[in-house]
Amino acid sequence: MVDIISYFCFGLGIVFWFWGTVPLVGDRSVLFKLHSLSVADTLGSMSIVVGLLLKIPNEWPLLILALISLAIWNTILGYVLAYCSSSRE
Amino acid sequence: MIGYLNILLRLTIWFLLTADLSLANIIIGVAVTLLLPRVATSPGAIKDWLRAFWEVVVAIPQAYFEALEIMVRPHSAEAITMERVKPQRTPGLIFLDIFVITFTPKTIVLKYHEDGWYEVHRVTPRRDK
Amino acid sequence: MNLMLLAMLLALLIPMYEAWQDDNIWQKMLAFASIATKTSILILVVSVLRDDWMIGVVGVLILSLGNASLMLLAQIIKRLNQI
C-alpha cells in the first residue's frame, strides 16, 4: 500500500516536472515561465521528496529538512528573480 | 514573542540536521541557539503569527490544486494587479505573506511597496482583450 | 526505479538546452535555477536507488544551502543593468 502511494508521488512529480519545464523552451515572458517553473520545481520536487520519504521513513529528519528548505528557497528565489527582472528602469 | 519563535526555529533546524537526541547534542544545540546573535525586531501579535502559519499550511494543498487547474485549463493570459497589505504587519509577517502568495503557482509577488501594496503578477485563463 | 531516473534525466536536458539557446540573461537565469533544483533532487533519488545514504546527505546539504548564490547573482545583474 505504502509502495503504491510512493510510486504515485513519483509519477505526479515527474508529470509536474515535464509539464512545467517544457514551456521554458517557448517564447513567453520571464514571468510566465516563472509560474510554470514554480509548478515544476517546487511542487513537483516536493512530491518526489515525499515519495522518497515514504520509501525510506527512517531517514525522516533530513528529508523533512530537505522538504522545508526546498519550498522556502525555491519560492523566495522565484520572488527575487521576478523582482530583479521586472524593475530595470 | 518573535524571540521565542526565532529560538524555536533554530532548535528545529538543529535537531532535523543532526537527528540525534543524546544529552550532549541537546546541550550543544541549546547553547548554539542562545549564543547566535539576535536581531531586535518589533514583535507581532501571537494571534497574527498563528493565523499566518495556518495560511502556510492551507497554502500547500491549495498550491497543488491550482497546479492541476492550470494543467487542465490552459492559462495563457497574464495580468498585474495590486493587493493591499493587511494593516499592522511586521516585517516577519510580510515575509510570510509574500511566501504564501508566491508559493501558489498562479500568483507571484513582483514588488512590495513601502506604502502598503503588493504588486502581484497572475496568470488567468483567457485574454481579456 | 531506473525508468524514473531516465525520465528525470530527460527532464534535466530541457533547461540545459534552454540555457544554451537563449541569449536573454533572465531566461538563462531561470534555466539555471531549474537545473540546480533538478540535480539536487536527482542526487537524492540516486542515493535511494543505490541504497547509500551518504550521497543523500550531500543532496540534503545542497538543498538546504539552496539557491543563495543565484539570488546574489540576480541582484548583481540587476545593478549592472542600472548602470
Shape of chain A: flat
What's the number of extended β-strand segments of chain A?
A: 0
Radius of gyration of chain C: 15 Å
Secondary-structure element string of chain C: HHHH
Helix content of chain C: over 70%
The description of the largest β-sheet of chain A is: none
The number of distinct β-strands of chain C equals 0
Query: How many domains in all of chain A?
Result: 1
Order of helices and strands of chain A: HHH
Instruction: Show unreliable segments of chain C.
Output: none
How much β-strand is present in the residues of chain A? under 5%
Supply the number of helical segments of chain C: 4
- Return the average pLDDT of chain C rounded to an integer: 87
Protein name (chain C): Sodium:proton antiporter
Keywords (chain C): Membrane, Transmembrane, Transmembrane helix
Organism (chain C): Spirulina subsalsa FACHB-351
Transmembrane segments (chain C): 31-49, 56-77
Describe the structure.
- Chain A: It comes from Spirulina subsalsa FACHB-351.
- Chain A: The chain crosses the membrane at residues 6-25, 37-56, 62-84.
- Chain A: This is Monovalent cation/H(+) antiporter subunit G.
- Chain A: InterPro entries: PhaG_MnhG_YufB.
- Chain A: Pfam families: PhaG_MnhG_YufB.
- Chain B: It comes from Spirulina subsalsa FACHB-351.
- The complex is a heterotrimer of chains A (89), B (129) and C (83).
- Chain A is flat and about 45 Å long.
- By secondary structure, chain A is mainly α.
- Helix content of chain A is 82%, strand content 0%.
- Chain A has three helices and no strands.
- With 129 residues, chain B is α+β, with helices and mostly antiparallel strands.
- Helix content of chain B is 54%, strand content 18%.
- Chain B has helices at 2-18, 23-35, 46-72, 91-103; strands at 77-84, 107-113, 117-124.
- Chain B is extended.
- The termini of chain B are far apart.
- The mean pLDDT of chain B is 80.
- Chain C has one domain (2-82): Helix Hairpins.
- Chain C contains four helices and no strands.
- In chain C, helix 1 packs antiparallel against helix 2 (25-50) and helix 2 packs antiparallel against helix 3 (53-65).
- The mean pLDDT of chain C is 87.
- The chains are: A mainly alpha (89), B alpha+beta (129), C mainly alpha (83).
- The interface between A and C is large, with 38 and 41 residues.
